[in-house]
């Protein structure tokens, strides 16, 4: 099963972006979607797939927290 995780764009670089996942910062490829710092995005396999709203990101994060228990 493949899962895309929601994160927040912290910094934009030439072809990548630094994305924060609850304090864990990861560099992800950013060429598929037009993004800005502060955007909430879904990342899968090191690539930003799409932007999501704050509400959508929070809902997904809550679901993932439930799965941890």
The global form is: globular
Structural class: alpha+beta
**Would you count the extended β strands for me?**
5
Q: Taking all residues together, what is the mean pLDDT?
A: 94
Number of helices: 1
Largest sheet: 5 strands, antiparallel
Oligomer: single chain
**Proportion of residues in helical segments:** 10-25%
**In percent terms, what proportion of residues is strand?**
35-45%
Along the chain, the helix and strand elements come as: EEEEEH
Computed Rg: 11 Å
User: Distance between the terminal alpha carbons, to the nearest Å?
Assistant: 19 Å
Low-confidence region ranges:
none
Q: Order of strands side by side in the largest beta sheet?
A: 3-2-1-4-5
Structure description:
With 69 residues, this protein is α+β, with helices and mostly antiparallel strands. The protein is 22% helix and 45% strand. It has 1 helix and 5 strands, in the order βββββα. Strands 3-2-1-4-5 form a 5-stranded antiparallel sheet, covered by helices on one side. It starts with a strand and ends with a helix. The model has no long low-confidence stretch (mean pLDDT 94).
SSE blueprint:
Blueprint: E1 5-12, E2 16-21, E3 24-29, E4 40-44, E5 47-52, H1 54-68
Antiparallel strand pairs: 1-2, 1-4, 2-3, 4-5
List keywords for this structure.
single chain, 69 residues, alpha+beta, five-stranded antiparallel beta sheet, 1 helix, 22% helix, 45% strand
């Amino acid at each position: 099963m493949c899962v895309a995780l929601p994160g927040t764009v912290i910094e934009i670089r030439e072809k990548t972006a630094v994305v924060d996942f609850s304090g864990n910062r990861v560099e992800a490829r950013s060429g598929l979607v037009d993004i800005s710092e502060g955007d909430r995005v879904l990342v899968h396999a090191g690539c930003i797939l799409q932007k999501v709203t704050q509400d959508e990101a929070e809902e997904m994060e809550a679901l993932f927290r439930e799965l941890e228990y």
